[in-house]
Write a structure and sequence with these properties.
Number of strands: 22
Strand order of the largest sheet: 18-19-20-22-21
Shape: globular
Largest sheet: 5 strands, mixed, barrel
Helix content: 25-40%
Number of helices: 18
Distance between the termini: 76 Å
Bound molecules: S-adenosylmethionine, iron/sulfur cluster
Length: 531
């Protein structure tokens, strides 16, 4: 088979150096689809001078020339094989594969720019790096253990080489802070989400002084001040605008108050000037963002004031906000649904459980009766308003009756689009010490809930077939002539349109639907009947 890749290279005019020829030969003789690390080990046995970077660049070149194809797996793992016309099944043991970072072209360009600005060079492969940054997310299951496990792998990798600088960033870093430095001497810098803007200086500081650093103070003000100096040049049609960070509610299952710190609301005028910059840059939809967005309070301003003020920017066509807490659905915010024409009629309001007993166990600080009251008040203001929610299933102590209450609430409200999760303990939270309920019961309950939620979603989408809806056109798709946009209820819509439609709200007739997407065609000349 060795001739095959070589021959293909010749056919396609790909120049083969001696090293590339060896890589092609080894690749052709391997029938187990090796990843770059494995391929490197194999070619090194033939020529010790071949670097892993050469292996990486060569497979990339073969891939770009249509000779090899890449299969990506979770966690950035990727393996290569010859590109064949015929289909065959893959059975690949990815447990032993090393992680390789294949980055998106645009991101790579940006990384290169930032690296160069600070006098660094991007390397193609982890083995060549002398600074290693592990970005972490605490919402993930066993996130902390995974970090230490990853550091363990790194230690092995660099056992006989110069130790790289090791940075742990993100929410796990925030939650663990100096504990990480104490537990794992291999870590040099721990940096939380509130300090990302300092990262370049911190790397420099460490390299100069060689003193291990903990950067996990909650300092939202300094972060926002820093980012305000950076001009937003977003080209997107829909853009997030952070107005609030942190949370003071301490639901027993949640890590946010520990990882993102206390509630902080950005000044009203700073948010407004950012909204105007976004509008000038072509943004048509603003999604106001915060861990507890409707708890926004700065001086006398509230979320409702921001909505009313953003509504006045002519270029902005749609306004949304996420994620909100039922307790902060204040009168002024509810009334805004009657005043605003740009506030979308989808209310994402996480309820978590339909049982007051469980809500109390969760320390949610709201009850179902209040939630239903908010539902009715909003429906009275605008009957087309719809709801979506988050649910935690199998919370410690949840019994069959509690679960049925959640199911009944779902049937009553008819949520159109929701997230449901089985409870999983997050280190450091009150609920992490509670006794878990039987996993099989939780799974069964989740299945039942999702069955109901998904069928509501399918029904809602089906009900739109043959009707004409408003869609904000966001971008073209890979299929020529097909565009992507969103309905007022955030549902994805695929339809035929042209480049001039991007950024506009158009009428789309829906022909087909599935659980997550509506398919249709743009209607250009609607004749309105005048009585
Ligand atoms: N602030 C929002 C609220 O008050 O509901 C929720 C924000 S939380 C970061 C996002 C969602 O993740 C939650 O609504 C919850 O459903 C889910 N979640 C958070 N912690 C969880 C846990 N320990 N187990 C399962 N799901 C969890
Ligand atoms: Fe705060 Fe929401 Fe987490 Fe509760 S679930 S602690 S309200 S972020």
């Amino acid at each position: 088979m060795s001739e095959t890749i070589e021959q293909k290279c010749l056919n396609k005019g790909v120049k083969l150096t001696d090293q590339r020829r060896i890589i092609a030969k080894v690749m052709s003789e391997s029938n187990d689809h090796p990843d770059v690390d494995e391929l490197y080990k194999r070619v090194s046995k033939i020529d010790t001078k071949i670097s892993i970077a050469t292996v990486y660049r060569t497979v990339k070149l073969f891939e770009e020339s249509g000779i090899l194809t890449k299969h990506e797996f979770k966690g950035g793992k990727a393996r290569y094989e010859e590109l064949n016309e015929g289909h065959h099944d893959h059975l690949i043991d990815i447990k032993t594969g090393e992680i390789i970072e294949f980055v998106d072209d645009e991101i790579e360009k940006l990384q290169k720019k930032v690296a160069e600005k600070h006098g660094y060079k991007l390397v193609d492969h982890i083995d060549e790096a002398n600074c290693y940054l592990l970005n972490t997310c605490h919402i993930r299951d066993k996130a902390k253990e995974k970090v230490y496990h990853e550091i363990g792998r790194l230690k092995k990798k660099f056992k006989s080489k110069l130790k790289p600088m090791v940075i742990v960033a993100g929410c796990v870093a925030q939650a663990e802070n100096e504990e990480m430095l104490k537990r794992e001497p291999y870590i040099d810098l721990v940096i939380g989400p509130q300090a990302y803007h300092k990262i370049n200086n911190k790397i420099k500081e460490y390299l100069e002084k060689q003193i291990r650093l903990d950067e996990t103070e909650f300092d939202a003000i300094s972060k926002f001040n820093f980012f305000e100096k950076i001009k937003n040049s977003s080209q997107k049609i829909s853009s997030f605008l952070t107005i609030q960070e942190g949370c003071d509610k301490f639901c027993h299952f949640c890590v946010v108050p520990y990882t993102r710190g206390p509630e902080y609301s950005r000044p009203f005028d700073k948010i407004m000037s950012e909204a105007k910059i976004l509008a000038n840059n072509g943004v048509k939809e603003i999604i106001l963002l915060g861990q507890n967005v409707n708890a926004y309070r700065n001086e006398h301003y509230r979320l409702s004031d921001l909505i009313i003020e953003i509504e006045k920017i002519p270029e902005i066509l749609r306004i949304r906000y996420t994620t909100s807490h039922p307790r902060d659905m204040t009168d002024d915010l509810i009334e805004t649904y009657g005043k605003s024409k740009k506030l979308m009629p989808l209310v994402h309001l996480p309820v978590q459980s339909g049982s007051n007993r469980v809500l109390e166990l969760m320390n949610r600080k709201h009850i179902i009766e209040d939630y239903i009251k908010v539902y009715h008040r909003l429906k009275e203001i605008n009957s087309s308003i719809k709801f979506s929610s988050d649910f935690i299933i199998g919370y410690p102590g949840e019994n069959e009756n509690d679960f049925n209450n959640t199911l009944n609430l779902i049937k009553k409200i008819k949520f159109i689009n929701s997230y449901s999760f089985i409870f999983s303990p997050r280190p450091g939270t009150t609920a992490s010490k509670l006794e878990l309920i039987d996993r099989k019961i939780s799974l069964k309950r989740l299945e039942t809930i999702q069955g109901e939620l998904f069928s509501q979603q399918i029904k809602m989408n089906k009900s739109l077939e043959n009707s004409i809806i408003d869609v904000l056109v966001e971008n073209g798709t890979e299929e020529s002539g097909k565009f992507f946009g969103r309905s007022e209820y955030m549902t994805s819509v695929i339809f035929n349109a042209n480049d001039n439609d991007v950024g506009k709200i158009v009428k789309v007739k829906i022909n087909k639907s599935n659980q997550n997407t509506l398919f249709g065609e743009i209607i250009r000349n609607i004749k309105l009947k005048v009585a």
